[in-house]
Request: fold
Amino acid sequence: MESRFRLLLLTAASAALSGCAHLPHLWPFHRHGHASVAAVGPTSATDNAPIVEPDIVRPQVKVPKIRTSNFEITTSLGLLNVEQYGTYPTVDFRGTYHIKENFFAEASFGVSKLRSLSYVDSTGATKRFPSRPHVYNYALDLGYDVLPGEAFFGGKKAFTTAVYVVGGIGSLHYATDSFYAANAGIGYRILLSDRFAAHIDVRDSVTQRSLSGARHIANNIESTMGLSVYF
Amino acid sequence: MRRLLCKYAFFLSLLPGLWFSGVAVAESARQFDRDIGRYAEVMVTGPYLDLHTGPGRRYPVFNSVPRGAHVQIILRRTDWFKVRDERDREGWVRREDIEQTQMADGAPLPLEDPDHRDTDALPWIAGAASGRLGHSWDNSVFVGYSPTPRLTFQLEGSHQPTRSYDRLMVLAGIHHMPKPEWRITPFFEAGAGITRVHANIGYSGTPTLGKRSVGYYGAGLRWEINNRFEFRLQERAYLLSKVSHPNQPNEALNEWKAGFAFYF
Reply:
């Protein structure tokens, strides 16, 4: 019986002592003892010093600049039909900025020369020009790629293409008059390379005229083919 | 035959070397290797990188580059990047996918995506507008430079085409936007320039022909559609100087117009 009590007390004492060992912060003497151990150890400065100095050389990566090509300049040749004046060869110059993947803004300027030396004035009478007059037209348009796709040449070669629509405003000056114009058109673009593209365009500049006192909507249709450079 | 082989043994012994050198030449003939250092090169860290046939979501995916492979970035068009992989396959990758890559030092590719408030990256603006000037339609184009997000120096050309006359204007002005952080924001502007009226066949005596100086002030609204594109609606008042007659009053014109502008 006595030995059982002794065993029980010894077990409780050993458990309590091991518990105290796990709670050193409760005992001031223990903290003091720890400080004294620290005092005889290495200094804090040397304690923080790494045992082995890492020899890290960070690579200096120079990233080449990524070339962008959102601007496009196009030169086109084609035919311009000026209602009541006839159809004439025309040259177009166009600047395009690609804002988003399918969305672009463009400004174009075209010039043509009339073959006809006669015209109908506001009273309906036919008159003659002293020389062959020019036709100037410009347009400020927004465009959208509606049908992106690919064109295949042979079995291995494929080119990126897009059918796009444009619309905007502009002006048409021919012979004697200037007219405010509303534009609409459709075009086909084929990317020959990263820098070059070919275009086929059909555009209508709608003007309002006053002919013989009556208002008249004139459709001036232009068909062109051109080459463009991206930069 | 044996004699022939002995005769040409020296040349035959060169054949394996030639073959291996051919392999070496073929390996170095990869465009990817030739262009190392010329283009930005990144490693795919996402599961894969889809290659599209063209710079747009509606162009089909024709191949993909696996994780860990390297690609060179050849070109950027809007938010699409033309890349070449280690097998010399070229395709277009959208911006969201190219962000799933990292450079040789482990850092992500620094991609610029500024808006008009970042005038260091996009200091220029250009656009076009159309509306009514007086009693006739008018078209204008403009280009501007913004040293700060609130201020733009603007150069503008406008054309008023009518049957009886053409009015041309060249204007320089200051454009102030007090709240550039708003998506729809007001702006105020003022400036001056010159205007010239040319007569056409149907010219009836007005407006006065010739060159005149002009001043203007106005206000409007800018509606930011995305970080590089906006619509505008504005109203302006013009005051045109006298031409020849001292008693002739200054001519005043009002204009409203709508248009668009983009930043670059």
About this structure: Chain B is about 15% helix and 55% strand. Chain B has two domains: 24-102, 124-263.
